[in-house]
Structure formats: structure tokens, C-alpha cells
Amino acid sequence: xxxxxxxxxxxxxxxxxxxxxxxxxxxxxxxxxxxxxxxxxxxxxxxxxxxxxxxxxxxxxx
Length: 62
Known about the structure:
- By secondary structure, the chain is mainly α.
- It is built from 1 helix and 2 strands, in the order H-E-E.
- The chain has one helix spanning 2-41; strands at residues 50-52, 59-61.
- A two-stranded antiparallel ribbon has the order 1-2.
- The longest helix is centred in the middle third of the chain and has 40 residues, at 2-41.
- It comes from Rhodopseudomonas palustris (strain ATCC BAA-98 / CGA009).
- This is DUF4234 domain-containing protein.
């Protein structure tokens, strides 16, 4: 009986690992699509750029 339990436990473990990898791949694919649409929609020419302030040396929009 114990070898059967070990076999069943290992099969369940393999199934859980397989499910976790598939879920991680799906989530990463959804994130890539979201990132691509987020950066594709932004018009880079309208965004302010950072320039160093000559007095303080800190970078400020402008």
C-alpha cells in the first residue's frame, strides 16, 4: 500500500508543477501584451524629458 501512496503523491506533485508552469506562462504572456499596448499608446514626443538643473544638478522635467 505505501508504494501506491508514493506513486499517487508523485503524480499529484507533477500535475501541480505542470499547472504552475502553465499558469506562469499565461500570466507572463498577458503582461507582455499589456506592456506592449501601454507603450504603443503613449506618444513619446508629448512626454516631458528630464534635463539637469544647472544650479542644483538635479534632473527636472523640461
